[in-house]
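WARN retry 2 of 3 for item q-0093 after timeout on previous attempt; input resubmitted unchanged.
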Amino acid sequence: MNFKKALFFATVFICGNLIPTLVTGTVYNTFVNDKGYEVMILHEGYSAVYNGCSPKKRNRKRDCIRLEVPEKANGNYYKWNNKGYRYEMNPLNRNATKYRLKVYTSKGKVILNQVLWSKMESNVTLLNYSLAGENWENSFVKYDIVKSQNAPGGFVIFNAPNKASRIRKETHTPTKLSVKGHVINNEGFFFMSKWSWEQHLKGKKPNWVWIKRLAPSKAKRLIQNRAKQVVLALKNKNSTLAKFAHPTLGIRFSPYSYVTGNDVKLAASQLRYIFSNSTKYLWGHYDGSGDPIKLTFTKYYQEFIYDKDFSNAEKIGYNKSIGHGNSINNSFTFYPSAIIVEFHFTGFDPKFEGMDWKSLRLVFEEKDNIWYIVGIIHDQWTI
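OK item q-0093 returned
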């Protein structure tokens, strides 16, 4: 078999001590990419069955291979060995909707490297792109009360919740919006204003507001000094960090670039004495192994906040991403009204050719004309 061209067909049984078990009831998800690779994952009770093949060639059958019982199955990470070849399936996001498949020779040479997306997720994305008329109601998140939403870089009003629809209005000045709900897709948040919600209740078609990101030059002028103060507070490990925390939202801590609503949030009152706090928090799961990141704040700080001297970073990006790895960076989507400052090192040891880069992202949101920290994101090269 040509391993450079072949994906795999793998069947994996996972239950306790990895003994195959006959169960009923099947749920499946399919992972694909634009090169024609496809992997189907079937979940049958406590068993998980992985099926996959390489792209079909003209007048040839698809190359497939079957592997049973992984050498390692931890969380959503899997590793198999087959006749000296090592196969690894690594989730690239926390929802396990995006995977990287790598095949290695016995000498550690990578002979196959493919990124696969969940076909189910792709369908949702296509649905969100086509939202119009009444279909948006299936994905609409309605707020119990009208919320105030900052738009520091202005906003665009669209006819439907996607940027391919007709633009009704665009502004470039800082604005506060009164919003009643939102839908979200891979273009970000689309908010419905209070006025549009009232129009919808009258049977009319609502408009949708997409918040513009501040240009890097404007973001730098607004936040440069504040960002320096925060990074020095982190470096000095003192209680001044608490005064920079958002008074109502606190600070969300994300160990990797993909931010979720489950990431640990700490209020300003908790941060005043956080370095002397012996409580262990579940911050997430380690990339690769999937093991829980259960640490005190001090240990988490050493590993996932200030593991390098970011006050002397090589590069600083204002509303501009610098570090790019395998993990999805959804920070601008998750924080649509924020200014995000990235402190970045390009690498430390020449033999790693830049794969040992590190970034610290500070996420600021404005309240009463003061920019507070709402998120601290650590980023680095992941498997």
